[in-house]
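Q: What residues go here?
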């Protein structure tokens, strides 16, 4: 009986030590991968933080003639577009860390008066964009958030269409010209596919320096 107990005891400790060694080796082996992942994250944060985007929306300042196309029934396979013409007037606040833009548009079937607010976060180096429509007198509670890279601005958020949660994407291009281009798209499949439902082309009338101070 004594020999049996000693054998069981030695087996127990041998198994324990083996399990410990396997755990230790696995932990050491996982170390570099975790370090690399952390380094990649830091590198990404460093890369984005190197660029100050505080003045990325300076291109929008001033008065613009605007032509807008809006898909009448998005996410329904609709091909019916409604066209609007009007003006945008934008000015900066907080030395460019915020931009307020007044929107007024008309079409044969309706009138739009809106307000866009854009705020720059100096810590994340991203912009948050909010929209308000005079029709309901309320500001969007969920902003579009993003930034510019190589002259292209992309901003993402969420909304609800027909009771279903969707993704929303804003894209700005041609921002270094007097005819910037904007598109809004919806996705109801988690961002796999996008349907453009709002297109705006602007033509500059005057810049911010033309306004009296």
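A:
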């Amino acid at each position: 009986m004594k020999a049996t107990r000693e054998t069981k005891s030695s087996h127990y400790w041998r198994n324990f030590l083996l399990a410990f060694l396997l755990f230790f080796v696995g932990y050491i082996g996982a170390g570099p991968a975790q370090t690399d992942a952390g380094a990649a994250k830091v590198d990404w944060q460093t890369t984005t933080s190197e660029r100050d985007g505080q003045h990325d929306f300076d291109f929008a300042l001033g008065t613009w003639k605007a032509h807008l196309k809006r898909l009448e029934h998005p996410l329904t396979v609709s091909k019916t577009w409604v066209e609007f013409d009007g003006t945008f007037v934008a000015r900066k606040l907080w030395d460019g860390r915020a931009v307020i833009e007044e929107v007024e548009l008309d079409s044969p079937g309706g009138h739009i008066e809106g307000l866009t607010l854009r705020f720059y976060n100096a810590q994340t180096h991203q912009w948050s964009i909010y929209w308000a429509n005079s029709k309901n007198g309320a500001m969007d509670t969920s902003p579009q958030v993003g930034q510019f890279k190589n002259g292209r601005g992309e901003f993402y958020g969420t909304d609800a269409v027909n009771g279903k949660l969707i993704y929303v994407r804003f894209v700005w291009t041609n921002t270094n010209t007097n005819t910037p281009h904007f598109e809004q798209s919806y996705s109801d499949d988690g961002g796999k596919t996008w349907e453009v439902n709002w297109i705006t082309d602007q033509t500059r009338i005057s810049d911010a320096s033309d306004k009296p101070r």
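A: Context that may help when evaluating the design: The chain has two domains: 1-50, 58-210. Confidence is low (pLDDT under 50) at residues 1-49.
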